[in-house]
Amino acid sequence: MVQINISFLKPGMKLLSDLTTPQGNLLLPAGSLLDERIINRCKKWGVVQADVESPEQSGQEDWTEIDPELLSQAKTQVQELFCRHRHPSQFIKVLAGDIVKQKAAALASEESAPLEAEELQQQEPTFSKQELDLPKLDADRIVSNTEELASLPEVFAKIINTLNDPDTTADSLAEIISYDVNLSAKLIKLVNSPLYGLIQKVDSISRAISLLGLQTVKNLAVNASVMEMFKDLSPDLLDMHSFWKHSIACGVVAQLLWGSSGRKGGEVFFLSGTLHDIGRLIILKDHPEYMRAVLLHPERGQKPLYQLEKKIWGFTHFELGAKLITSWNFPLIFSDLVKYHHFPKKARYEGEATNIHFADIIVHALELGESGEKNVPPVEAEFNKDLGVSLKDLRELLEQIKHLVHHIQNIFFQEKDEE
């Protein structure tokens, strides 16, 4: 019996043990022969590897056959990405090592497309001294001036208001969501995604609530509603598509990490992970010159972006984001996770904040979208000790993450699924 990475499975291989999803649901019993349809389904559902009978192991030696020059290029890129980690922990070493392999393999297979000519010629905008001398902002005033829920489309305002309303019922939530056809369709796709591992096909919001619970579906609906609020921001300073890809990826990875440690109560992570950088969007929306001053600062890349925010704005994106979420009457845990995702040891919900902290680091390392930060943020916690996930499990999770994140992002951006 040989355990093969999903990337190297081929039609005709025979399973020697049951093939299951990361949630433990059976995809195919032992003894079955693989075909293209099953292999594609494995990728879609985040399956990492399979036990097969005497396969050709041509793919298994590929790492050692990579051109040393390409490997050196990959290491240089990863060193720059992790430049703030002078004394890396075992977690960072495992993460960086895995990314070196991914980058080297991509270079070897020519998956790393060269930059477009116009992109290569594009000059980075200059940074003026005046942008260092901007007066400090008032975070409380910004929050009070931020678009009120009452001015949102009615359905979104109602959905956000359900989050902290204990009297919300499954029927009343399903009725609110049903008023928006696009939102309903998006939620149905989400609950049928690998993120929740349901084998039964869900075809209604009411059914989704009965299977996943009222709070999970509330959180998903609020998530889509908040994204709608910021959909029309200018891409001049931050690519919104890339920003939301990073944010969604953080939510997906946070939920996956928490579930892999066997702990309950993971329904908060998709929403809190997606909203962890929302403070930057408020500044981009109402004070773009202040966002520009941070993103074009000459010390960007040398220091964490939140240090430049504090210097120029007078507060950080996570402080502002937490204030906004509090003003919307979200349950306390959401503002706590947003406020302390860089410093989880200070959080009231320390375990949950640590989970978002590591999810953010992993997403930055895998370069899944962009939040404005150039490098992988510093680590405040110890992975094994604080999450209860072994480094061996981390390696397996890294295999799942890209497939799962890609699938969820496609739902939000309505991209055609390649599968």
Overview of this protein structure:
With 419 residues, the chain is mainly alpha-helical. It folds into 3 domains: 2-52, Molybdopterin biosynthesis moea protein, domain 2, CATH 3.90.105.10; 68-113, no CATH class; 129-152 and 230-413, Orthogonal Bundle (Hypothetical protein af1432), CATH 1.10.3210. It is 53% helix and 3% strand. It has helices at 36-44, 68-81, 90-108, 117-121, 139-145, 154-162, 170-178, 181-191, 205-212, 214-229, 240-260, 269-274, 278-286, 288-295, 305-312, 317-327, 332-339, 350-365, 383-387, 391-413, and strands at 2-5, 19-20, 26-28, 49-52. It has a two-stranded antiparallel sheet with strand order 1-4. Helix 6 crosses helix 10 and helix 14 crosses helix 15 (305-312). The radius of gyration is 22 Å and the shape is globular. The model is unreliable at 54-63, 111-123 and 415-419 (pLDDT under 50).
Summarize the structure.
This protein has 419 residues and is mostly helical. The protein is 53% helix and 3% strand. It has 20 helices and 4 strands.
Keywords, separated by commas or semicolons:
419 residues; mainly alpha; Hypothetical protein af1432; 3 domains; 20 helices; 4 strands; 53% helix; globular
Furnish the topology, listing elements before pairings:
Elements: E1 2-5, E2 19-20, E3 26-28, H1 36-44, E4 49-52, H2 68-81, H3 90-108, H4 117-121, H5 139-145, H6 154-162, H7 170-178, H8 181-191, H9 205-212, H10 214-229, H11 240-260, H12 269-274, H13 278-286, H14 288-295, H15 305-312, H16 317-327, H17 332-339, H18 350-365, H19 383-387, H20 391-413
Antiparallel strand pairs: 1-4, 2-3
